[in-house]
């Protein structure tokens, strides 16, 4: 069993055993009908064609997509879309993990000084009519660890075959880009 599968199953286990934490801030123990998320990831500042970025959108039902750009966004950069189908159990597990990590009850601290270089990732979630955003740059503390666990679980919703397909397309894009510079 892979690490990604284990993380998702642990989230389901938390939901089943009722260990998802106490309710607060208007959140409910069961996933609300309007639960949806948009996770964004961008590689650090790299010269073309080595930068890439993607967005994973899920909900409010069990449908979603990953939108992948193999370079900095422009009118010349392709945009690849792959549909995602997740189970109700996957959505319940992500919601339970978000509750456990304090997404709905904590005040997420944006870093006062954004780091230079490196990847950037952030999350926007809707639940119970409330919109929550995790900032792209957070102070290094327990919240950073909590957000990384949540991000990993969201990335795990994308099947390995889809990641492989996108990575193969990205490698081909890089080769074609570099061949065009010669």
Feature tags:
Mago nashi protein; disordered N terminus; 21% strand; six-stranded antiparallel sheet; 4 helices; 182 residues
Describe this structure in words.
The chain has 182 residues and is of the alpha+beta class. The protein has a single domain, classed as Mago nashi protein (2-Layer Sandwich). The chain is built from 4 helices and 6 strands. It has a 6-stranded antiparallel sheet with strand order 4-3-2-1-5-6, covered by helices on one side. A hairpin with a 2-residue loop joins β5 and β6. α1 packs across α2. It is globular. It starts with a helix and ends with a helix. The N terminus is likely disordered.
CATH-derived architecture: 2-Layer Sandwich
Instruction: Supply the number of helical segments.
Output: 4
Percentage of residues in DSSP E strands: 15-25%
Q: Report the average pLDDT across residues.
A: 82
Quantity of strands, as a count? 6
The run of helices and strands is HEEEEHEEHH
The Rg value, from CA coordinates, equals 17 Å
Q: In a few lines, what is going on in this structure?
A:
With 182 residues, the chain is an alpha+beta fold.
């Amino acid at each position: 069993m892979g690490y990604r599968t284990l993380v998702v199953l642990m989230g389901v286990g938390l939901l089943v055993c009722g260990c998802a934490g106490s309710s607060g801030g208007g959140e409910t123990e069961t996933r609300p009908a309007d639960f949806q998320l948009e996770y964004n990831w961008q590689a650090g500042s790299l010269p073309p064609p080595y930068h890439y970025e993607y967005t994973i959108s899920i909900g409010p039902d069990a449908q979603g997509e990953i939108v992948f750009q193999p370079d900095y966004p422009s009118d010349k950069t392709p945009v690849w879309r792959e549909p995602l189908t997740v189970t109700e159990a996957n959505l319940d597990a992500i919601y339970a993990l978000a509750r456990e990590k304090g997404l709905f009850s904590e005040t997420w601290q944006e870093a006062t000084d954004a780091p230079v270089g490196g990847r950037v990732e952030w999350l926007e979630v809707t639940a119970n009519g409330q919109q929550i955003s995790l900032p792209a740059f957070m102070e290094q503390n327990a919240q950073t660890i909590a957000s990384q666990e949540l991000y990993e679980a969201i990335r795990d919703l994308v099947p390995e075959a889809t990641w492989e397909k996108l990575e193969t397309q990205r490698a081909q894009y890089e080769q074609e880009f570099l061949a065009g510079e010669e």
